[in-house]
Amino acid sequence: MSGLFHLLRTCIPKWCRPRPDRQSQKHLQHHIFRQLQTNHPTTQALVAIRPGEQVLPKCRFMQYRRANEHLKRLGMVSEDGSKMVELSSITCAASNMMDFIQQRYCMDSLLDSVQFMTIENVESVDLRLLPPIDSPGKIIGIDCNYVDNCDEQHISIPREPSFHVKFATSITGALDNIKAHSLAKHIDYGCQLAVVMGKKCREVAPKEALKHVFGFMVVQDIVARDWNALLGGHSMDTFLPLGPTIVHRCHVPDVNNLWIKTTINGEQRQTGNTRNMIFKVDFLIHRLSQYLTLCPGDIILTGTPAGAGAYRQPSSFLKPGDLIESEIQNLGKMCNKVVNPYS
């Protein structure tokens, strides 16, 4: 257990770590988020900040609860993870992400008004991180969208995207446990870039597609490979960890050039880059919108690079006790433990 807490303290932004008591909050490390923003221009900017210069929260949105409360709150955190503002109590912003997306809030106005809000030090706030979005209308995934993933399966590169669905009941948080359901024997992993839609669209052109996106986040698409996908292989409870925040598209200048990593028990299993997608984000939105209406809050999973447990030699599936770390450049990092379904 001590090993888990060591990983949580050193690898995860301080604002989304478990906090067993208030005393432990005083010992949280400063600016942990910098370690998660490597190889990105914003990191260099953070390093260049002068002592005493205030770091303001940006459009990185989270849902959370304060200690001893049941009320869901909507907040925004800074890129270095040190500062936060609560939006749902001091602005006209909705208290949950789905309603906030549909409000079509002007991000420029929101950023301009942050300086007049009450900015809190994250280490002084006792909160529980929730999934940044928990009730999307649709969750749509794509099969085999990376060349190396096709290669490891010994299949040809697809000419057209093939999709599957997941249910919202499979959603869990960036630090929550994944249940190893007793009916599933071959539980696999796959870190993916997730697209969160911001506007309703139908038959949208590829060049206009990204204008309908709200933001991006990290997901881990857990699947029971011994179950038929239509019967729940992708959608068992807790099989979709996502978070830790939704980063607005204005902070992701090139979604087609982000590295992706998955680590299992300290061993790096997946490493890839979104530039290696077969079907890019704009085309996926375009393609889906040809035969269904995409709505605000809908989630599109964009595929996973090579390294899934099913295609390793020998195969290596998840089991209780495994610790999964999922990370995408500029979007953050998740840490989920696989547990017995009855724990």
Low-confidence stretches: 1-52
Helix content: 10-25%
Report mean pLDDT, rounded to a whole number: 83
H/E element sequence = HHHEEEHHEEEHEEEEEHEEEEEHEEE
Major pleated sheet: 12 strands, mixed
Q: How many helices?
A: 8
Quaternary state reads single chain
Work out the radius of gyration: 19 Å
Strand content: 25-35%
Number of strands: 19
Protein traits:
five-stranded mixed β-sheet; 343 residues; 16% helix; alpha+beta; globular; disordered N terminus; twelve-stranded mixed β-sheet; 19 strands
Give a quick summary of the entry.
The chain has 343 residues and is an alpha+beta fold. The protein has helices at residues 2-11, 22-25, 41-47, 97-103, 107-114, 147-153, 206-209, 281-289, and strands at residues 60-66, 73-77, 83-86, 120-121, 127-130, 139-143, 162-166, 171-172, 178-179, 187-188, 191-197, 213-220, 223-224, 240-248, 259-264, 267-273, 299-301, 323-328, 332-339. A hairpin with a 5-residue loop joins strand 2 (73-77) and strand 3 (83-86).
Walk me through the topology.
Blueprint (H helix, E strand, L loop, with lengths): L1 H10 L10 H4 L15 H7 L12 E7 L6 E5 L5 E4 L10 H7 L3 H8 L5 E2 L5 E4 L8 E5 L3 H7 L8 E5 L4 E2 L5 E2 L7 E2 L2 E7 L8 H4 L3 E8 L2 E2 L15 E9 L10 E6 L2 E7 L7 H9 L9 E3 L21 E6 L3 E8 L4
Parallel strand pairs: 6-17, 8-14, 9-19
Antiparallel strand pairs: 1-2, 1-5, 1-14, 2-3, 3-4, 6-7, 10-13, 11-12, 11-17, 12-14, 15-16, 15-18, 18-19
